[in-house]
Amino acid sequence: MVSYSIPMGHESLKTILLHTDPNLRFKIAQRIPKIRLTEKTVPFKIKSLSLNESETVINSQSYKLGVYCRYHTDDIPLGIKNRNKWGGVSSDLDQYGFEVPASSTPILNGDVSFRTEHDEDDQIDTEEIEYSLQLSLRAYEEALAKINQLESEGKTVEDFLAGPMSEDDQRIRDMLEIPKEQLQSGLKGYRSLLLPFHYRRNNLSPPYTYYIQLTIAQGDVKTIQRYEYNQKLYEAAKKLNEILFANRQVIIVNQFETRCFDVLRLPSAFKIFANYVYGYNEQIVPISSIVDSSRTLDKLGIVINHEFIPIFQHSLVKNSEKLSITTHPGHNDQLAKAFETMENQRIHIGFFDSVNPNANNYFSLIQGWLSKKRIVGFKITFGLKTDQIGEEVLELVRNGNEVTESAERSVTFLQSDATKVKISYSPRDKAKVYKFLLTARIMKA
């Protein structure tokens, strides 16, 4: 039987590639070398992109790199076994098994650095660390020995803790409240952490071989590839992202985020056209170097966790149509002050789920937002946990203005510039924690 194939036209191929899932495009280009140049010229559309030091996630598929340790014996320490299970160690290892500090790696052309002058890597191979690990190991050993002794005597830990105890028993009292299985697991973990000190002290090579492992995962389906460890992990991350993104003329990303706090290993001239960007406030300036500034962001999400960094006049922030900020009440004063120069038409403030902001927290932020003259159509929103908080905020608004108009779940008052402010709250659909949305809106008088 003779089969015939009709060659696909160049433009038809480009149209098909444009609407093909990016992960499938990688596979096609790898298997059909003739279309690689064409594939690179077609705009690359990604629904969600997450970039980290050694992992790239495109849509629902992740490409994760790690250092895998293949043991020469069946007796694999628990720590190594667990790290292998999760794709390997996410940093380079030296000849004794110590992790190499991330700060010691160079920044290459095209890389995006999130390091600061104050960044310091915790050294994990010092004598102080070894001594601390030995103390913890000894405490776990003593606690397990005591539990085994009590079991052989037919006694329970609860009875022992309720009775008189010697000074040594008092010292491990808290350890005895840890379940025996957890103590056994912790014991193995501490022994595993101490092994590199043993290898270095005796100038021994660990009983395993290093490999660089690439784990490609989508849901429960994983593909694992291992390569000889003849390059550093950061170099492998650089090459991976070059294979995925280098020489692409247009990369369009609907949602971009990074959890990186060290260095993103990216190809030179890497740029994305993004609709939504999400990151911690200390990441926004480095992120801006790879987001094409010719396109206004639909939304920028900023998390203010520890340090409050005043980045709100940065072009990436100022030009975002909607600014969403997640913070906690401890930053309220700084945030209210920052509102004086913010020009975003839509702002949303969310608080971490673990905190419980009160009505005054919301009211002070609304006052800060209103301290700057804003035109009709501008609004700021907040998440509320309860209906009661909403009513308390409205009451503070009434008390803070001489003349107001009230309706169910809303208060309106006039401003001197022929505008009015309407503050209201309403239930949010499918919200798990912040079940109401509080809104302050500038309207025509």
TrEMBL record:
Any single Pfam family the record assigns to this protein: DUF3557
Taxonomy, superkingdom: Eukaryota
Name recorded for this polypeptide: DUF38 domain-containing protein
Organism: Caenorhabditis nigoni
